[in-house]
């Protein structure tokens, strides 16, 4: 009997030690996640300060590429697995310019900014006109040129010898396409993340037509339209209700990131989404384009993304399993790894 009790006590002691180890591991993951969210809030404050200094035109974060040693990144969302150690010396272009999609802002990239900086690379985040901490009234943004202005101004002011890798999410594919048409010599690669990669004469909205219906029908019937100039005038923007956004965009994203998005997303200017984009073979056609597909996406279904790839023939296609429409939230480690892989392609 006594031996049984001692045996049971030893077993309980082992189980308790195992439980403590698991609890320590879980606490570490939660602490790492909390740290990243604090960085997101810090980034938001930083953006607000920059918006006052630069009239809301641009927010930026630049990681040091000269004083910090390259090291493998331990992603707190990867359960201890490490991202492969990419040599920064093999990355001829070390600056990524991250462009958000509809309703989002520079804030949505906070995990990717942290990952790239940990990989000794630079990350620039742009608030498009009327988005994030750019305080322009979205109802006044009627063209793709206006919407893309912060991105265009940033590229225009790059040093002559410098070029960048553009990364566009969702409808952010339209501004990076517009930029690629304007400055093919300044953009080494353009990466479309479940994005609107359009053809000449196509509207960004057209990519979403299978989910949202035709542009004409959407303009007449959608309950999400905003009439900034009065009901008797054409709609100026749109914004989905929170429950719709959760189902469309965030079906695999962590709850904290969903909460961050719910308080940060802004209405989408409608004009740029309905404008037919002019793209030429001589300029846009010479650009190196890559596409990242998200395979659990409810906003832009995998079938639609396959169609986009077939119709536009990017140089390379990458796929992220288990990602919703926002891989920077749901699969940040996978997206980070893909960005580095594309950057290394000769």
Annotate the secondary structure layout.
Blueprint: H1 2-53, E1 95-99, H2 110-118, E2 122-126, H3 144-147, H4 149-156, E3 164-169, H5 173-182, E4 187-193, H6 209-212, H7 215-221, E5 225-226, E6 237-238, H8 242-249, H9 255-264, E7 268-269, H10 270-274, E8 289-294, H11 302-312, E9 316-320, H12 327-330, H13 332-344
Helix pairs in contact: 2-13
Describe this structure in words.
- This is AB hydrolase-1 domain-containing protein.
- It comes from Eutrema salsugineum.
- One of its GO terms (biological process) is salicylic acid metabolic process.
- Keywords: Hydrolase.
- With 346 residues, the protein is α/β, with parallel strands linked by helices.
- It has one domain: Alpha/Beta hydrolase fold, catalytic domain (Rossmann fold, 3-Layer(aba) Sandwich).
- The protein contains 13 helices and 9 strands.
- The strands form 2 sheets. The protein has a 6-stranded parallel beta sheet with strand order 2-1-3-4-8-9, with helices on both faces.
């Amino acid at each position: 009997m006594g031996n049984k009790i001692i045996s049971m006590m030893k077993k309980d002691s082992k189980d308790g030690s195992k439980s403590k180890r698991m609890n320590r591991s879980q606490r570490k993951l939660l602490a790492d996640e909390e740290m990243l969210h604090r960085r997101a809030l810090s980034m938001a404050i930083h953006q607000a300060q920059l918006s006052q200094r630069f009239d809301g035109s641009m927010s930026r974060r630049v990681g040091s590429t000269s004083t910090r040693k390259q090291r493998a990144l331990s992603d707190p969302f990867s359960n201890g697995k490490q991202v492969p150690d990419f040599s920064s010396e093999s990355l001829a272009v070390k600056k990524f310019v991250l462009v958000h999609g509809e309703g989002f802002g520079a804030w949505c990239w906070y995990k990717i900014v942290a990952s790239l900086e940990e990989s000794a690379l630079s990350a620039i985040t742009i608030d498009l006109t009327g988005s994030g901490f750019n305080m322009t009234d979205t109802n006044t943004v009627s063209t793709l040129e206006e919407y893309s202005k912060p991105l265009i101004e940033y590229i225009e002011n790059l040093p002559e010898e410098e070029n960048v890798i553009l990364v566009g999410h969702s409808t952010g594919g339209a501004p990076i396409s517009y930029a690629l048409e304007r400055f093919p010599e300044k953009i080494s690669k353009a990466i479309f993340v479940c994005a609107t990669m359009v053809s000449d004469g196509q509207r960004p909205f057209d990519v979403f037509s299978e989910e949202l219906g035709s542009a004409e029908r959407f303009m007449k019937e959608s309950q999400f339209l905003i009439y900034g100039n009065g009901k008797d005038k054409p709609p100026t923007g749109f914004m989905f209700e929170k429950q719709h956004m959760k189902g469309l965009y965030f079906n695999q994203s962590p709850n904290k990131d969903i909460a961050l998005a719910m308080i940060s997303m802004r209405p989408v200017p409608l004009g740029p989404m309905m404008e037919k984009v002019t793209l030429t073979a001589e300029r846009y056609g010479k650009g190196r384009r890559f596409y990242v597909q998200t395979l659990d996406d409810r906003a832009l279904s995998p079938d639609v993304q396959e169609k986009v790839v077939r119709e536009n023939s990017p140089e390379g296609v990458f796929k992220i399993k288990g990602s919703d429409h926002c891989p920077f939230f749901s699969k940040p480690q996978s997206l980070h790894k893909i960005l580095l892989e594309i950057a290394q392609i000769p």
